[in-house]
Amino acid sequence: MIRLHYIQHVPFEGLGYIEKYAMKNAFTVSKTCVFNGDSFPDADDFNWLVIMGGPMSVYEENIHPWIIEEKKIIEQAIKHDKTIIGVCLGAQMIASVLGANVFPNINKEIGWFPVTLTPQASSTEIFGKIPESFMAFHWHGDTFDIPSGAIHCASSEACANQAFVYDNRVVGLQFHCESTVVSVENIIENCADEIKESRFIMGKDILRAGMRHIQDANANMGLLLDGLLCLK
């Protein structure tokens, strides 16, 4: 049985579709809610670790001291051969733990924008069945360098490094394919101050109209999770 543990940084960015997938596949699910001051688990407590998003940055340890502890559990999970998925901030956390730089992107990317897989991505079990180009939800200002030894798997027009795979079991996703109607509404409500329309920042009406892409985005997340599940 897969024991999935996830780290949630803010109340409005939960597992989304990943929770539905976990229930369908009879995973057990536990969580650390950082915003409630929960303690982090031991690496022996889970098979899969999922690290969700949030408005903070990985280099803000002085503002959010829990970042130091979170990086330690990610490092331990990597050393103990766990399956790890990082989404948005979660991907940046993994990249940082693996020694890559995390820094402000030239453009903030907020909205529904296409993601294109790299030629290398198709050679992985994890991305092998996902379409070469697909629509995903984005809400980020930071980006990361691809960690040494990782496979660069996806890019978008605004952000060159959208995904990577490390050691065939550690996945970083800058984009969101786990989003649901509820999660998109929640982030619009809680981060509305970031919506300053520009080339790569959509207005609220367009963000909501883009929810028509959720079903396909979730299907792609399911294919990615299937790929990880087949590795076990």
Annotate the secondary structure layout.
Layout (H helix, E strand, L loop, with lengths): L2 E6 L8 H8 L3 E6 L14 E4 L14 H14 L3 E5 L1 H9 L4 E16 L15 E12 L6 E5 L7 E4 L3 E4 L7 H10 L13 H6 L4 H17 L2
Parallel strand pairs: 1-2, 1-3, 3-4, 4-9
Antiparallel strand pairs: 5-6, 5-7, 7-8, 8-9
Word description of this protein:
The structure is a single chain. The protein is of the alpha/beta class. It has a single domain, classed as Rossmann fold (3-Layer(aba) Sandwich), CATH 3.40.50.880. 28% of the residues lie in helices and 27% in strands. It has six helices and nine strands; from the N terminus they run E-H-E-E-H-E-H-E-E-E-E-E-H-H-H. It has a nine-stranded mixed β-sheet with strand order 2-1-3-4-9-8-7-5-6, sandwiched between helices. It is globular and about 45 Å long. 44% of the residues are buried.
Shape: globular
In spatial order, strands of the major sheet run 2-1-3-4-9-8-7-5-6
Helix content: 25-40%
The separation of the N and C termini measures: 11 Å
- β-strand number: 9
Order of helices and strands: EHEEHEHEEEEEHHH
What Rg is obtained from the alpha carbons, in whole angstroms? Answer: 16 Å
Largest sheet: 9 strands, mixed
User: Roughly what fraction of the amino acids lie in strands?
Assistant: 25-35%
Low-confidence stretches: none
